[in-house]
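Hey team,

Filing this mostly as a record. A colleague (T.K.) asked me to run one chain through the structure pipeline before their review meeting, and I want the input and output archived in the tracker in case anyone asks later how it was produced. No errors, nothing strange. Just documentation.

Input sequence:
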Amino acid sequence: MTETTIDKLAAELQNALKDKGEILATAESCTGGWIAKLMTDLAGSSVSYDRGFVTYSNAAKQEMLGVSPATLETFGAVSEETVIAMAEGALENSLATVSISVSGIAGPTGGTKEKPVGTVWFGWAMAGSATETLLIVFEGDRNAVRQQAVATSLRKLIELLRRST
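Output structure:
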């Protein structure tokens, strides 16, 4: 996957957001604001992008998005429960109508048997709908894991927007 591919996905997402009249907020951990950067690189992004939360630490997830300490203690930062709370927290703390959340282990360290390096959880929230989640264990080095996570985040939200009425 190339930077050009990801840039094209971001432009496609921006068009889908505009077509549906939706506004995006992002809640990123392992991608470190990469999705926010891509979206704001695009001319006219202020119509379809509200804000990004880079919540790399557990404290940031709690303070900025309202993720409960109990969720983080029980399930960990890289979990379905956490990305749901992140995605929903991004909606609650913004003017957005849709959100993306990402939390994972990009490596090269930090993995465990249960959650190896490359493990990434995703969440997509849309006002009035149930939050959707996805778990993928990516292959590759730190940059490859992060790049694949960004592309997956964008691609899936494009699909969700196309399915919505």
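Quick notes for T.K.: The chain has one domain: 3-163. Helices lie at 3-20, 34-41, 58-65, 69-75, 80-92, 142-163.
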